[in-house]
Design brief:
heterodimer; A: mainly alpha; B: alpha/beta; Rossmann fold; five-stranded parallel sheet; four-stranded parallel sheet; 18 strands
Chain lengths: 289, 413
């Protein structure tokens, strides 16, 4: 059972990390609570399905194009919907909720409420410590590791990353120093949604694609970023694996309560917040900044 | 001036005539989640019935033939129960429907039932299985007598069918695979309609010489069950008994195939009843089996012609909510016998009905639930075999074998 928990938690943690890190990134830089974040993940899964199955593109091209398209849509949405109200946090929250629902309803109209399955890139499974893991899930793990490493490199070893970190440190000072913070925020939205879009593309062949698929990960993602410390990328990464392992332990330890895995994860979040209201890495991150 | 007056008079007469014609139509509200497959089938089955009836001149009400007019009511009940109650309210008050047909999600249908009963409107349920819908009739007949369940059978009868099929599968396992007491893992989504079935399974399976190795209850919207399947593999299950209606049904079939889990999946898996299941599982759902309603086998003399006509018209096989066809045909027979569309006068006629439908012979018990058993409602079981949905049950069950059933295939365990 131990190895089952270890492997299951690791794979699911990779997906959660992709979502949560992107969400944290844009919150850290522009204080945007993007509730539509997982809706972009859903949009990417649908774009991938459309390009792969309906248009007939190959796997790699369809994946890449789906991510690029969704990033472009996200930047457009930022420009048209979020930027005009960015200074008003409540308005941003409501605007992004509306965006998520617009995407949901549009997909419902366009594709119907059908559950869509997408073929995987590679068939078969590997046995890791006696646990069967499909190759597609291993791809998720590898892609998550590459994408997250790439994000880290971007943030710490590029001028753009430096600008993002400067903006995250103090948006007003960055502005006064002559940095184009609006453009930085927009490109950060692109990077942030890019991670969600990658998650959407890699999970599409494993999960079922449907117009409600953004809702469950939204709650889990919010739990992760609050647990890790709002705006802390490091915290989101750690939080993703904590929540993922808590879910795995719940399923294995209390099979008939498997539906409670989300609730248990949220309870852990509440417990941590009672102990450390700023989240696990909130203070450390503030100091880093 | 005179010509103008004549034109006005003519217009008024035409309007009055059109209104009179519309008033002559019998309005049937088809309630379902129209953006989803269940609602699409509600509507498709109803369209077939309407066209057939209207082509034959309509429904004979007393001395007049009246055409059928369908009203499409999107209940959105999969996403929102309040939407469903608003929708049925609208069907009754604004659209002035004469009869209500459909519903799918038990939680929503229980709420819609209240609205229909408040308005003393005949409501023929096609889709929801929860027993409470029928129990309401027994407990408060005067209020709930306008409710009849056409399809599916109530949850406890679904359980009886499921256990009968499970018995067939376990016997085959004992015989072919030398497993004296097959191990069963129960995977049931967390939903209202599952409760009675789950309890019955836990009580009944040990009596049927099958050991229950565990119960896994993911959320109804779960779309990943790898953790559950790993645990099931560790438990050494031979049969994965499924009670699922949501997307989990696809993921379960697909992930079982991907991980080559050495077990047979059988139970209620609504997604596996659909034509699109094979594609949705990326061709991995081999051997997944489920209870079902329609197939090209002779359940009644009407089954094969109906399924063929449905496939020809809609380019897909009917799902169980296409029994809206049977509901409308039952309503037609009832109205013609009673000579009226008044709900109070139709209730006693339906109570005594024996209607040969497309998937069963419908008769009703005191709860206004369809009577289960050989020669009445049995259901069928199907298995996905290399992309084809193959009916395999009933095959010599209580003397019932439907012409066209083929054997179930057990994967190599």
């Amino acid at each position: 059972m131990f190895q089952d928990i270890l492997v299951t938690g690791l794979v699911n943690g990779g997906i959660y990390a992709l979502l949560a890190v992107g969400f944290s990134l844009i919150f850290g830089v522009a204080r945007i609570v993007n509730i539509a974040h997982t809706a972009f993940y859903m949009l990417s899964a649908y774009a991938f399905y459309f390009l792969l199955v309906k248009v007939g593109m190959n796997f790699a091209v369809a994946s890449l194009l789906a991510v690029v398209l969704v990033v472009a849509v996200s930047m457009l949405c930022y420009k048209l919907v979020i930027e005009p109200v960015r200074e008003h946090h409540a308005a941003v929250l409501i605007a992004t909720i509306a965006l998520g629902l617009i995407f949901q309803e549009s997909l419902l109209i366009g594709f119907g409420g059908h559950y869509i399955g997408i073929p995987g890139a590679i068939d078969g499974f590997a046995a890791i410590a006696g646990v069967r893991v499909s190759y597609q899930r291993l791809i998720i793990l590898v892609v998550a590791a590459v994408a997250l490493s790439g994000t880290w490199l971007l943030l710490h070893h590029s001028r753009f990353g430096l600008a993002i970190r400067a903006a995250a440190n103090d948006l007003e000072i960055a502005n006064l120093m002559g940095m184009n913070v609006k453009r930085i925020a927009m490109f950060t939205v692109g990077v942030s949604v890019g991670l969600a879009a990658i998650a959407g593309v890699v999970v599409a062949p494993v999960y079922v694609v449907d117009p409600l698929m953004w809702q469950t990960p939204l709650v889990i993602m919010l739990a992760i970023v609050v647990l890790g410390g709002l705006g802390s990328i490091q915290g989101s990464l750690v939080g993703a694996f904590i929540i993922s392992y808590v879910e795995a332990i719940t399923v294995f330890a209390v099979p008939s309560g498997a539906y409670l895995k989300g609730a248990v994860a949220l309870s852990i979040m509440v417990a941590v917040l009672l102990w450390k209201p700023e989240g696990l890495f909130g203070v450390v991150f503030e100091e880093e900044r | 001036m005179k010509r103008g007056s004549l034109k006005l008079l003519g217009g008024l007469l035409a309007l009055a005539f059109a209104s009179a014609c519309a008033a002559q139509n019998i309005k049937i509200a088809i309630l379902g989640p129209m953006a989803f497959l269940q609602g699409e089938n509600h509507w498709a089955g109803a369209e077939m019935a309407r066209d057939e009836i209207n082509k034959a001149g309509g429904i004979q009400v007393g001395g007049a033939k009246r055409q059928v007019e369908l009203v499409k009511i999107d209940t959105n009940e999969i996403l929102s129960v309040p939407d469903a109650t608003n929708a049925i309210e609208r069907a009754i008050t604004r659209d002035k429907a004469d009869v209500l047909i459909g519903g799918f999600r038990s939680e929503a249908v229980l709420a819609m039932q209240e609205v229909a009963m408040d308005n003393k409107k005949l409501f023929l349920g096609v889709g929801a299985a929860h027993s409470k819908l029928g129990v309401n009739v027994k407990e408060n007949f005067e209020r709930y007598k306008y409710w009849f369940r056409v399809a599916p059978t109530k949850d406890t009868d679904l359980a009886r069918t499921v256990f009968a099929v499970l018995n067939t599968i376990s016997e085959q396992m004992r015989r072919d695979l030398g497993k004296p007491e097959p191990k069963v893992a129960i995977v049931a989504e967390k939903a209202v309609w599952v409760e009675a079935l789950l309890k019955a399974a836990q009580d009944t399976l040990p009596k049927m010489k099958m050991s229950v190795v565990g119960v896994w209850q993911p959320s109804a919207t779960a779309n990943d069950v790898t953790a559950e399947l790993s645990a099931i593999k560790r438990a050494g299950a031979d049969i994965v008994f499924t009670i699922v209606s949501g997307p989990m049904g696809i993921v379960l079939g697909r992930q079982m195939g991907e991980l080559q889990l050495p077990a047979v999946a059988f139970g209620i898996n609504v997604e596996a009843q659909k034509d699109g299941f094979w594609a949705a599982t990326a061709s991995k759902g081999n051997y997944v089996s489920t209870l079902d309603t329609y197939s090209e086998i002779e359940i009644t003399p009407k089954t094969v012609p109906f399924v063929k006509a449905f496939k020809e018209r809609f380019k897909r096989a009917p799902a169980y909510t296409a029994a809206s066809y049977d509901a409308i045909m039952l309503y037609k027979d009832t109205v013609e016998k009673a000579g009226t569309i008044e709900s109070d006068k139709l209730v006693p006629v339906i109570e005594k009905a024996a209607h040969t439908g497309t998937a069963s012979v419908l008769t009703f018990d005191a709860n206004h639930d369809p009577v289960f058993g050989p020669g009445k409602v049995t259901g069928i079981a199907v298995q996905w075999q290399n992309g084809e949905k193959v009916p395999f049950w009933p095959n010599n069950w209580n003397g019932v074998t439907y012409k066209g059933v083929r054997p179930i295939i057990l994967p190599k365990l």
